[in-house]
Write a structure and sequence with these properties.
Blueprint (H helix, E strand, L loop, with lengths): L3 E4 L6 E8 L5 H10 L4 E5 L15 H4 L4 E4 L12 H19 L5 E3 L7 H6 L7 E3 L20 E2 L4 H10 L7 E7 L2 H6 L2 H11 L5 E3 L2 H12 L2 E2 L5 E3 L6 E5 L3 E5 L4 E3 L1
Parallel strand pairs: 2-3, 2-8, 2-9, 3-4, 5-6, 7-8
Antiparallel strand pairs: 1-12, 10-11, 11-14, 12-13
Length: 266
C-alpha cells in the first residue's frame, strides 16, 4: 500500500510566514529586511486612519508591499467584539474596498484589531470574502492551524523568537508539516530599540533551501488546493482540479508535482 503525504511547494515540509499590523513607517525597514533574506510578510493595515502622520500613506502600499500581502485590519481599528455587527461588517468591507483599490488584487484575509473577535464575527467572515483571520497570542508550536479564521501565531517577535527560530531550522522529520508564524508591530522595534532581534532572526531563517517562504493567503490557498486533490481508490492516479501545482510525497522518498488541471500516475 502506498503512503502519500501532502508537501509544501517543491516538496518542502516547513513554511515561514510573518504578520505585521498597523502600517506604520517602520514597515519600510522591515520590508527591506524581509526582501534581503527572501522572507515574505503579510501586512494588516487600516485604510481609514488618516490623522496619524506616522502611518504609511495608502498610495504607497502597492509599491512598498510588492511581493508581500496587504490584508484587512478594519478601517479604523475598533475593538470589534464590542461593536454592533452592522459596524463590524462596514469596518471590514470598507477596509477591503480601499485596500483593493490601492493594491489591485482581492484582499481575503485580516487580523483582528486589538485581538478582538467573537464566534458571531467568525461566522460572518466567509460571507465578507475573508478566508483567514489572525488572533493575538502565541502557541509556541509549529503546528498547522485547525481553523484559519482563528489563526494564532507561533510567537510575537519579543517572545523567544531566536530560540524558536533555532528549533524551527533544526526540524527534520518529514512526516509532518511545520509552520513558523511570527507576528508583531514594526514600530515596537523603535520603541524598544531592538531591531537586532529581527535582523538576527532573518539571518538565521532566511534563504534556506528547506523552507517555503509564504504570505498568509498563499498558505491558505495552497492548503485548499491540496485538499482538492482527487485520488483513485488504488492510489495509482491523482487529479488536480485547481489552477496551481500541488506537491505530494509518495512512499516518503518520491516527490511528485501535480500541476493544475493534470491527471498524473503515481
Amino acid at each position: 500500500m502506498k503512503n502519500i503525504y501532502t508537501c509544501f511547494p517543491e516538496g518542502k515540509h516547513k513554511v515561514l510566514t510573518m504578520s505585521y499590523d498597523d502600517g506604520r513607517e517602520e514597515d519600510r525597514r522591515l520590508v527591506a529586511l524581509f526582501n534581503e533574506y527572501g522572507i515574505k510578510g503579510t501586512f494588516h493595515v487600516n485604510s481609514g486612519i488618516h490623522w496619524d502622520e506616522k502611518r504609511i500613506p495608502i498610495s504607497e502600499y502597492k509599491e512598498l508591499y510588492k511581493g508581500h500581502e496587504v490584508s484587512v485590519h478594519t478601517a479604523t481599528h475598533p475593538t470589534i467584539a464590542r461593536c454592533p455587527m452592522e459596524e463590524v461588517v462596514d469596518q471590514i468591507m470598507e477596509d477591503r474596498k480601499a485596500l483593493e483599490d490601492a493594491v489591485g488584487y482581492p484582499i481575503r484575509g485580516m487580523s483582528y484589531p486589538n485581538g478582538s473577535f467573537s464566534q458571531e464575527i467568525i461566522d460572518v467572515l466567509p460571507a465578507l470574502g475573508i478566508r483567514y483571520a489572525r488572533t493575538v497570542g502565541s502557541t509556541d508550536s509549529f503546528a498547522m492551524p485547525e481553523n484559519f479564521l482563528r489563526w494564532t501565531a507561533t510567537c510575537h517577535h519579543n517572545h523567544n523568537l531566536q530560540k524558536l527560530g533555532e528549533e524551527f531550522v533544526g526540524l527534520f522529520k518529514k512526516q509532518y508539516l511545520y509552520m513558523m508564524y511570527v507576528w508583531g508591530h514594526s514600530y515596537e522595534f523603535g520603541l524598544q530599540d531592538n531591531w537586532e532581534v529581527m535582523e538576527n532572526f532573518c539571518k538565521l531563517v532566511g534563504r534556506r533551501d528547506d523552507i517555503w517562504y509564504a504570505t498568509n493567503i498563499e498558505i491558505v490557498d495552497y492548503m485548499d488546493a491540496a485538499k482538492r486533490l482527487q485520488f483513485t481508490a488504488k492510489l495509482d492516479k491523482v487529479y488536480n482540479p485547481s489552477f496551481q501545482s500541488v506537491w505530494i510525497a509518495v512512499n516518503d522518498n518520491q516527490i511528485v508535482e501535480v500541476k493544475g488541471g493534470e491527471m498524473k500516475e503515481i
